[in-house]
Amino acid sequence: MATTAELFEEPFVADEYIERLVWRTPGGGSRGGPEAFDPKRLLEEFVSHIQELQIMDERIQRKVEKLEQQCQKEAKEFAKKVQELQKSNQIKEAADIIQKLHLIAQELPFDRFSEVKSKIASKYHDLECQLIQEFTGAQRRGEISRMREVAAVLLHFKGYSHCVDVYIKQCQEGAYLRNDIFEDAAILCQRVNKQVGDIFSNPETVLAKLIQNVFEIKLQSFVKEQLEECRKSDAEQYLKNLYDLYTRTTNLSSKLMEFNLGTDKQTFLSKLIKSIFISYLENYIEVETGYLKSRSAMILQRYYDSKNHQKRSIGTGGIQDLKERIRQRTNLPLGPSIDTHGETFLSQEVVVNLLQETKQAFERCHRLSDPSDLPRNAFRIFTILVEFLCIEHIDYALETGLAGIPSSDSRNANLYFLDVVQQANTIFHLFDKQFNDHLMPLISSSPKLSECLQKKKEIIEQMEMKLDTGIDRTLNCMIGQMKHILAAEQKKTDFKPEDENNVLIQYTNACVKVCAYVRKQVEKIKNSMDGKNVDTVLMELGVRFHRLIYEHLQQYSYSCMGGMLAICDVAEYRKCAKDFKIPMVLHLFDTLHALCNLLVVAPDNLKQVCSGEQLANLDKNILHSFVQLRADYRSARLARHFS
After folding, report:
1. Contact 502, 448 (CB under 8 A)
2. Rounded Cα distance, 317 and 295, in Å
3. 468 and 385 in one domain?
4. pLDDT band at 19 (very low <50, low <70, confident <90, very high)
5. What is the maximum alpha-carbon separation in the chain?
6. 31 domain residue, yes or no
7. Residue 329: pLDDT band by 50, 70, 90 thresholds?
8. Which of 135, 272, 457, 539 has the CB geometry, 3.0–4.6 Å to 150, for a possible disulfide?
9. Do residues 431 and 509 both lie within one domain?
10. Percentage of residues in the chain with pLDDT exceeding 90?
11. How many domains does one find in the chain?
């Protein structure tokens, strides 16, 4: 076949073609050559060549038919496109004409040209509808360029806004397929933001209208559905949903701020948010405070129920205030002492739950309150915390603890008030931390700051006063216990034995028991308090402890060996005083130890001892009182040496 194709030359001449074929065929030549003329062979070659030509003709014919069909198809498509372009142009031309006619018709008097005006209006409306339908179809087909053309034509028509509405509606078809409507809305706006500039001449207006549509229809409907269901039946869920929905809406607004929405997009978006939530935010703080009160009351009641405890009524008003003032001035327990069985009625779990509820309330308050109402709303939440945590829980525990402190002359009294002090201190720290971390940022730049600080100061001072009263009475009870030990264990014969020669020089049994009791109380005080409070209380206990021992020693008469035993007791008391780690207390017992030396020193050395470093500055009456305790004081020799 390739050989046959090579025989064709342009221009084609049949005789020359046959001549070339014969010449190339072996045995076809007539003028000499390597082979003689062979007519049979030449005939065969002609027959074969004719067959090849027929096959080639068929192939060429099929190719021609295929090309003709393709050409016809392209011609039809081209004609259709030309027709569409012509039609499109006639629409544009018609739109221009009808628009001008419509403007002119506005100026014509109705009575004379009512029919003309009506026809123009009808044609205007029909053409407008056709354009909108064309835009709708182009949007469904994704033909951005056609949408841009039609939108440009409609720009001068009244129905241009309807064109925008159609675009916005169709943009949202199939846009909300996830479970997160806020994420869907963000993705939709991002997609439209990339596209809208290629279609409309005012993309920022169209995008703003889309966002407005999303907020006022989709989001508002979703928010209403989520909130109305639990608004009246479940305040806790309602507040959680409100906070979550408002937060997610404002987060969406923050994402939309990156788009061009016109001049003041901040105000625009804020108004949209407000339009959704205004009916819920107007009474938000009432719902918040109502829920917080009921929730706090439930937390406390659940705790007291778990203790099988019925809260005592703590009186208020004139009588209670009078009792409080008398108690503070006289340290007298007014009313019968109650047995708390070691229960402090303070619970860290309760405190944590109350603070957690309040923390969440502060967070919601910060997010949901109007800036002008924020300090006032935060203060209302703070007052609820004060009411239930400080008054209903801590103050009640302090009052109960005070009522549980036994009188100072009670025997074997269990002193649980220090446990109340320990837990109250821990709670104060937690309360103060929440005040600083969560309330202060909300009120720091408002007049409510001073009001909150003053209220906090009053609450703490009131509680510190009760703690001081309780600690003071507890210390009195400790001293009372020591008195009982000394009264029960100390014998007169301890310091004036009948047999001076049969005395084992060591501290007395009373001293051993008192020191053991004191060490236990010192350890308890250190565990119950922190900072300077420990030193303050230990100093007070140390001073009272010293006064007790001083007065106790004044009750006895001392022989020489008894005086030695008293010195051993005081030495043990002084060792116990070292555990206080208060220099003043140790100094008091050092001085007392020096005074006890006056009980045993030789009469000739009394003046020398009294003028020593530790006793030189003491009042002479004090020195004399100790010398008078000696059994040999009335001897003329001793009296002469001390005079």
Report:
1. no
2. 28
3. yes
4. confident
5. 190
6. no
7. low
8. 135
9. no
10. 48
11. 3
Same domain for 360 and 267: no
Whether residue 572 contacts residue 505, with contact meaning beta carbons closer than 8 Å, is answered with no
Q: Is the pLDDT at 32 greater than 50, yes or no?
A: no
Q: Are 509 and 454 members of one domain?
A: no
Looking at the structure, tell me whether residues 397 and 472 fall in a common domain: yes
Q: What is the mean pLDDT of the chain?
A: 84
Query: Pick the residue with more confidence: 100 or 181?
Result: 181
Stronger pLDDT, 316 or 590, i.e. the higher one: 590
User: Do 596 and 517 have their domain in common?
Assistant: yes
The gap between the terminal CA atoms of the chain, to the nearest Å, is 161
Reported residue count of the chain is: 643
| 356 and 444 belong to one structural domain | yes
- Final residue belonging to a domain, choices 254, 278, 302: 278
Q: Assess whether 353 and 430 both reside in one domain.
A: yes
**Average pLDDT for residues 368-387, to the nearest whole number?**
96
Residues 340 and 324: their CA atoms lie apart, in Å, by: 21
Token pair of 79, please? 């004609």
Radius of gyration of the chain (CA): 54
Residue 560's closest CA among 633, 451, 454?
A: 633
Q: Letter for the amino acid at 512?
A: V
Final residue of a structural domain among 278, 311, 333: 278
Cβ atoms of residues 427 and 351 within 8 Å: yes
Tokens linked to 222: 């979703």
Return the pLDDT at 575: 95
Q: Which helix (H) or strand (E) holds 133?
A: helix 110-141
Q: Which residues contact 536 (CB under 8 A, 6 or more apart)?
A: none
What gap in Å lies between CA 508 and CA 393, rounded to an integer? 46
Distance CA 99, CA 158 (A): 10
Q: Which domain holds residue 606?
A: 503-641
Kindly report the CA angle at 66 between 61 and 72, in degrees rounded to 5? Answer: 125
Q: What is the pLDDT of residues 50-94, one digit of tens each?
A: 888 888 888 888 888 888 888 787 777 766 765 665 555 558 555
| pLDDT tier at 28, thresholds 50, 70, 90 | low
Beta partners for 558? 630
CA angle 478, 536, 584 (to 5 degrees): 90
What is the average pLDDT across 578-607? Answer: 90
* Helix and strand counts by DSSP (H, E) for the chain: 26, 0
Q: Residue 630 pairs with which residues in a beta bridge?
A: 558
Helix ranges, 386-437 (H):
396-403, 417-434
CB 442 within 8 A of CB 373: no
Could you tell me if residue 329 is inside a domain? no
Q: Residue 4: which of 56, 47, 41, 39 has the closest Cα? A: 56
Residue 613 lies in a domain: yes
Q: For residue range 467-505, what is the model confidence (pLDDT) as tens digits?
A: 999 999 999 999 999 999 999 999 888 888 877 666 666
Q: What is the pLDDT of residue 2?
A: 47
Please report whether residue 537 resides in a domain: yes
Distance of CA 133 to the CA centre of its chain: 52
Question: What's the pTM value of the predicted model, to 2 decimals?
Answer: 0.73
User: Could you tell me where the beta strands, DSSP code E, fall in 251-389?
Assistant: none
